[in-house]
Amino acid sequence: MSHKKSLEFNGMIQILKSIFLGGIAFFSLILYGLGILKPLEILIIIIGLVVVHYAPKLRKKKKSYDQTGLRTSQIETLKNQLETYLENEKPYLNETLCRASLSGALGITPNNLSQVLSQSLNTNFYDLLNRYRVEEVKKRLVDPRYENYKIIAIAYDCGFSSKAVFNKVFKKITNTNPSDYKKQAIRN
Fold first, then answer.
1. Buried b / exposed e across 166-181, counting CB within 10 Å, b at 16+?
2. What fold is seen in the domain 129-187?
3. Tell me: the pLDDT tens digits for 117-126?
């Protein structure tokens, strides 16, 4: 059976299961209305229906990276390669940088990049980019070559695509807003 047909079949099974469980619940309420079932029996039936419906979803799933085949030593090598590339080439300055283009530049798959980020750096693609972008903004805010630039212009040059996102991310990472950071950094 093809993957598409398998998904369609599973979808039909879920629909039939929902109809069946809904029918049991409806029939139970009718029996309650006729005085045949007591409230406690209705509660037991409803709990049973909930368990039947949600039990498959509660099963432990495989770790998402079990199938990639990357060993710990490979992950460490790729992490070092990634960090060197980010520091030397600064691809995060491009606001359109995506996971696929970064992984392509590194010669790995997007899933392998995600695995490296998750397992060795405890982060995801966007948080990593934002961290590097904020660090670049912080450097430029105190660099005399950028003293005549507006903060938002520096943010755009560092890869941020909107003022709102920049302010939110900057505050999340530094616990202060960009203007206050600049004032404090210049004083020090």
1. bbebbeebeeeebeeb
2. Arc Repressor Mutant, subunit A (1.10.10)
3. 999 999 999 9
